[in-house]
Each structure stands twice: as C-alpha cells, then as structure tokens.
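Dear Dr. L.,

I hope this message finds you well. Following up on our conversation about the binding site, I have prepared a predicted three-dimensional model of the protein together with heme C. For your records, I am including the exact sequence and ligand specification that went into the calculation, followed by the structure tokens. Please feel free to forward this to your student if that is useful.
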Amino acid sequence: MSSQDHNKEFDGIRQGDNPIPPRWKLFFLISIVFAIGYAVYFHNFSDWKMEDRFAIEAKEHDAKFPKAKEVASTDGSNPLRGNADAIAQGKATFGGICAACHGPEAKGVIGPDLTDKVWIHGNTDSEVFALINAGIGPEKAKLKKGIMPPHNYLGSEKIYQVMAWLASNNPTLIQSKK
Ligand code: HEC
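The resulting structure of the complex is given below.
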C-alpha cells in the first residue's frame, strides 16, 4: 500500500474516495469564467466608479449632517445678539446640549445658573464665547463641581446663537467692557 492511498482503513472503517459530482465541477468552472468576465467588464466597460459613489454618499451625508457654520465677529462681541431667529435657535441648542448640566432654563444644575448676576469666568461676549468654545478643564474649574466639555464642534454660529438666547435672559451678559 503506498502512502498515497487515501482509502486507508481506520479501526475497521474504510474511508470512501468518491469524486466530486460533475455538476459541482461544472458550477466551479462557471464561477471562474463568470469571475473573469465580471472583473474585465467591471474594470474596463462599466461606468460604475468608486470615486463617484463616494462623492454621492459624501454629499448625502453633508445634507443630513450640515457642517458647523462660522460667523465672524470683528471685536469679539456676539454678532447675533438681539437677533430673534438666533435666539430661538440658541434656545433649542441649549436645550439639547447645555441643559443636561445647566438646566432647561439655564438656572443651574451641576453647571452654574447662567441667568443670575454672578459670572465666575467673566461676563463679556468674548470671554463667554471662549469659555463655551474651549470648555472648562479641571485646572480652570472654580466651583469644583465638575468640568465643562469643549463645544468647539458646534461652530461659532451655534455658540453665538446660544449666547444670544442667554443674553436675552440675562442683561448682565454684556457686549464688552466699556
Ligand atoms: C457636562 C456638564 C456641562 C455641559 C454639557 C455644559 N456646561 Fe457649562 N459649565 C459646567 C460647569 C461644571 C461649569 C462651572 C465650571 C467651574 O467650576 O468653573 C460651567 C460653566 C459655564 C459657564 C460659566 C459661568 C460663569 O459663571 O462664568 C458658561 C457661560 C457655560 N457653562 C455655558 C455653557 C453652555 C452655553 C453650554 C452648552 C453649549 C454648556 N455650558 C454646557 C458644566 C457644563
């Protein structure tokens, strides 16, 4: 018996050596032919392009999740101050993002009351903007109740909208120190 004999007997059981059914082999061959044909068609004749598909999906994504908009301020004061649209938008953003820590009416929870006269980190537009943008890390937190995360991902438009709403509720948030 050569070592090539696959039909060895093991413990009285003889292993069968049956060929693969011809229809399986035929299917295998057809698959190979199809794969070659498909690859040639796909790369040389089809107009489906990964770059195009990517561009379309990127566009759909941008439409669904608009990029943060930037609003420029020349002197650090809030350009959206007093703008009714911005105040409404700002209230909505505040409710979704800031209310968890500052309360829905900004009266304070973990974060301080933002409707009172006390501004531990400054009460001008530029100071408050910088604060919301960069957050308050453990080294800067004065109340020792916790930290505030940065909100720079919101973009300046959304931050100024929130500040417009805060200012509409709190006259002690001022444009700039005179
Ligand atoms: C994870 C909780 C948390 C979130 C979310 C949060 N804050 Fe705060 N915020 C705090 C804490 C805590 C402080 C006080 C830090 C300290 O001890 O100095 C603070 C302080 C502030 C201050 C300074 C108040 C002062 O008296 O000077 C402002 C303004 C402020 N937050 C605005 C916002 C706005 C606007 C948002 C939403 C975009 C927001 N915060 C989201 C926790 C948070």
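In brief: The pocket of heme C is lined by residues 97-98, 100-102, 110-112, 114, 118-121, 128, 131-132, 136, 141-143, 145-146, 148-149, 151, 162 (CB under 6 Å).

With kind regards,
A. P.
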